[in-house]
């Protein structure tokens, strides 16, 4: 179980969200409150959009609280759309390739959750990655695999449909192997224009997900960055959130048919 | 505040103490119970004596729970006298050079605690390191500094006296700078023959220290490795422990005059 | 293209071969002479057999010439059968999981060479890994893939046959994709009892491979450790070398039918 | 001996100089041509000025050619004044703290060269660092020490004078210890407004230094980035170069009195 944050809105320096709030993402990496695992010290990553075609990406296997590079980068990089993630491994190794966010072309993806009994379905799901993307995958996590399934299922044409199909495909594979453990999927995706977040689980314990809009800033997070609890809106189970460049927010029960 | 373990006795594989006990040192790195900081994820190290003149040393900046190399090394290295340490930084950077144990010639040293307001006395104390040792120091921690003070004060001739003089010297410098913060020093030292542990603090909160002798095995630890609480003996404040190669144990209030 | 060394014989400290010779493996990592790439700075690894069921393994992404841990480990670890490898990446990322040697159960494997146009055949070859081994694979290199193909092809029953079948399988896949680039495979394998080295290429440029027996010591290397050129015996193209625990050496043209 | 590059002018993406030229700094890290050591694989760093008070800093102990983070950062960070450095250690350890550039407040500094027999004068020179800066020093290199000497000698008031005094101080200490080895100092310094480069040596072998002005771009480098040799101007021995924000270039023999 991991912790993550995404932001869309007027450009801000990354440290204003990643480091400065009382319960910032880096503070959460040491003491998460709503996570199954309080310590998220198995690597971290940031991804941000600027003027280039592809987003910037910085991932490291150290704990986020311990990396002087991250402090300097977050202090000096300004972005109007970025992701940050701190990782608690669910079994796969600690390497940069296994750290979130994952990037492909203009897309960023990050995830909190897991495919239950992943080893039983890994091979079968990997076989569904389209040839076009197969050799771009760099790590061994279930999270990156889901990202490549979404790409293979037409993410570039219809994100909504690709996410749904990825969830259905994972669950179908789990059923074939009679897996009782849950599939938990609280994730965030962007193409550099808008962002899409999903809070899904095959059981009734989807990892928490909140957002807040204030002025020209929308923050989407695993858990609130401060104690102003009234200001944070929790997503319901199986709800998805879409925030466009002009900060129009829409919510959807897109995934209810999956379970 | 850190957690550490030392062992002297019949040769054992390191993982039998570092990984296998329910509350092993690596388990403590994620969830320490008697420490001020529950997470000790700012690097770790092992040092062990074999047949060479100098001890082996493996230090890494990753959290101990996350390092496949440590697992393999601890599973394959057998020793009759070794140290293991997990670090929670008290302000100095995370680099291998700042990880314990520190080694010089045949000596190993590791420490839990800190010099209060270290920055105020750092320069003055560094100036007391003997020329012979000055360029061997690799890092910037107060812990390594104390080790080099002990070496400079004749550790090779009279360990007892060198430790006492190092403590007195640190406290005198702190007094000169009118430092109110405490000096805490729960530390372990070995020359490859015997081991010496100290539980000292300038205030009444010395970090915890326990030991247990069973058969031909003596373990000295920051906190017990298992719940058999009756089997672990706590050292008193300002008490030192000496364990010789034949496992003769002696305790001493060697430091009472320092405070 | 990488450089490697393996040793079987009376126990020696690893540094006597890895660091001390004039043209030691670590010296080769900075200035290889018979390799296509003179610098092998993309990670390294050592694997050694002791009294445990599985070999010890230490792999790191730093250049070998730069790692204080490697120096200390090689100085303090003694073994009668060990592998050491310095890596120059042929395209896959630098992570510990991609460093040689690779270990599975009691087996160690390391490789110099590559599958030409690996991306074209990667998927097809990965699909041939037996379910039993599929999730044990940790990295993304062609080298580790070949190791898992050998395991899948019965390495535990008949190493000779499994190696041959792996080579034939790789070449058949390359032919199906009409790949003109060469398959180069100068590799070493051990089960903890004996070691087997192979110098193979689909073209006439197999990476170099030498061995030397002196007293109770057999060394197998990518290039000689010293200038006593008469003492090193080069393997022929497509020749394999087998050295048993009692240091009986046999050579074979086992692979001639493959090409 | 290291390789470095600095840039001042219209904002450019860092990778246009660090990666893209045929003989880019990263290409030089594998195959330097004018350096004593062809491989500069002992860490690297970039420092850049943007809109913050302090420059951004990213330093890592991997070889520069091997770091995916560096590629992404250099592709996405744009700056009108930046430094990049690839390191070949002259004896001190490989840690991020020992990688260039070094930063203090608004200043960046990087260096190619060394203080001959540094261990003999290290203590004496460290004693000259002003109290104000003493605890900001993080590493153990001679390069960082010289930077802190310059700060202590009034860099913020008169850079020219501080550099000269630092050189004189180092040489005086070397003379007192009767050191015959050379002091070599090809270095670059910036306060975020202008940049100052120096090519100095106590003997007649100062490390190479070139610059080129084209349009609104000035590049200062250890060795040319391309084969257009006529376009690169070499600095003379003991010459300094100053480039202001408006790209006015002045050269000076400021150091001739030092030798």
UniProtKB/TrEMBL annotation, chains A, B, C, D:
The protein's UniProt keywords, in alphabetical order, are: Glutamine amidotransferase, Transferase
Q: Transferase among the record's keywords?
A: yes
Molecular-function GO term, any one: transferase activity
Question: What domain of life?
Answer: Bacteria
The record ties this protein, via CDD domains, to: YafJ
- Record's SUPFAM superfamilies? N-terminal nucleophile aminohydrolases (Ntn hydrolases)
Give the signal peptide, or none: none
Q: Does the keyword Transferase apply?
A: yes
**UniProt domain Glutamine amidotransferase type-2: residue ranges:** 2-252
PANTHER family given for it?
Answer: GLUTAMINE AMIDOTRANSFERASE DUG3-RELATED (PTHR43187:SF1)
What is the protein name for this chain?
Glutamine amidotransferase
Q: Which organism is it from?
A: Thalassospira mesophila
Higher taxonomy = Bacteria, Pseudomonadati, Pseudomonadota, Alphaproteobacteria, Rhodospirillales
């Amino acid at each position: 179980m991991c912790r993550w944050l995404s932001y869309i809105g007027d450009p801000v320096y990354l440290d204003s969200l990643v480091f400065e709030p009382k319960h910032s993402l880096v503070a959460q990496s040491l003491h998460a409150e709503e996570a199954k695992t309080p310590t998220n010290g198995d690597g971290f990553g940031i991804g941000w959009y600027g003027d280039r075609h592809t987003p910037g990406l910085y991932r490291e296997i150290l704990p986020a609280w311990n990396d002087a590079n991250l402090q300097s980068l977050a202090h000096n990089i300004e972005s109007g759309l970025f992701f940050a993630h701190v990782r608690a491994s669910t079994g796969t190794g600690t390497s940069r390739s296994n750290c979130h966010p994952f990037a492909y072309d203009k897309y960023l993806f990050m995830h909190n959750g897991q495919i239950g009994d992943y080893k039983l379905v890994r091979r079968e799901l990997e076989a569904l990655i389209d040839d076009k993307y197969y050799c771009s995958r760099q790590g061994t996590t279930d999270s990156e695999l889901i990202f490549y399934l979404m790409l293979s299922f037409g993410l570039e044409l219809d994100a909504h449909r690709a996410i749904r199909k990825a969830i259905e495909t994972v669950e179908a594979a789990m059923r074939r192997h009679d897996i009782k453990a849950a599939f938990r999927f609280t994730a965030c995706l962007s193409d550099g224009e808008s962002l899409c977040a999903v809070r899904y689980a095959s059981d009734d314990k989807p990892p928490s997900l909140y957002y807040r809009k204030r002025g020209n800033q929308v923050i989407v997070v695993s858990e609130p960055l401060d104690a102003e609890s009234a200001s944070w809106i929790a997503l319901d189970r199986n709800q998805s959130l879409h925030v466009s460049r002009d900060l129009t927010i829409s919510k959807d029960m897109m995934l209810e048919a999956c379970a």
